[in-house]
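Example record used in the benchmark description.
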Amino acid sequence: MTEFRHDEGRQQAAKAVVRGLYDAMAGAQPDRMEAILAAHTITDWRWRGMHPFHEQTGAAAVARLFWEPLTHALHRLQRREDIFIAGLNELDGFDGVWTISMGHLMGLFDRPFLNIPPTRKIAMLRYAEFNRVEDGRIAETALFVDLIHLMKQAGLDPLPPQTAAELIQPGPMTHDGLLSEAGDPGESAKTLALINSMISDINDHSQYASPQEELAHTWHDDMLWWGPSGIGATYTIDRYAEQHQQPFRRGISERRYNGHVCRLAEGSYGGFFGWANLTVTNGGGFMGLPAGTPADMRVVDMYRRDGDKLAENWIFIDLLHWLNQQGLDVLARCCPGEPTP
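Model output (structure tokens):
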């Protein structure tokens, strides 16, 4: 890999561009979304979203398919942000500058969204968003939201019982994830190097005598793994191995690593996304489902480093897309009919 690079000027400018978009969106009515998005993005803006939104081009399509229906459904929408960082993308030789925002989109769930029934109560939609900024505008976005978690808040139970805990997931224990000022480049380099070491361990875990030994190489013993709905959250190395790592490795018969689109770090925080990160085959039993065909897994990982090891990990997986490729349309089964705009 290219030696770590940091460009404070470009990174801070990118934060200002994305923060300008978020400020403009705050409190905006659905019919304003297209104009707001168009003012902050390039004409052929590339947008990646989870199933059923997938890839879109331009502000009009993104507004029509995602933001207008969402702001119509979640009344008085708020962005409750827990992490906001920027960095240069390691995977293009530290050339492109990206921001990462993570937290919850909160509102009063007053109208259906994708035919998920409204509750007239607070709803918290977990999200992680990556934005590539170029010449003062957003050129590329990946937005992951946990729709299965929203379904569960609406009283639906779309999947078999999960192995770990179902929670409204908090932000960092240290409450220092919003980096309005530039992070220290030396600390950023340490975080990225540790994330890369962890990825290497996953791809070559046979070198370790046990899952616990593998995890202890890059993780604190009291690690927190904030997994997506359908899998859940776990605490400590032992419980993570029991409640996610081993069920995943036992249940998946084949696994191909496809790589990532963006990987960066700032200060003690870092993360990546892939499109798709993995192609995996359910060998029978994972998430309580029968054996299936190879299917793509689109994944986001966000990390907090504490000293020389990782302490927290927030995960988003497009499980709806992964299941749909195997013939199970969870949204259609639980929320039939044409999506309500």
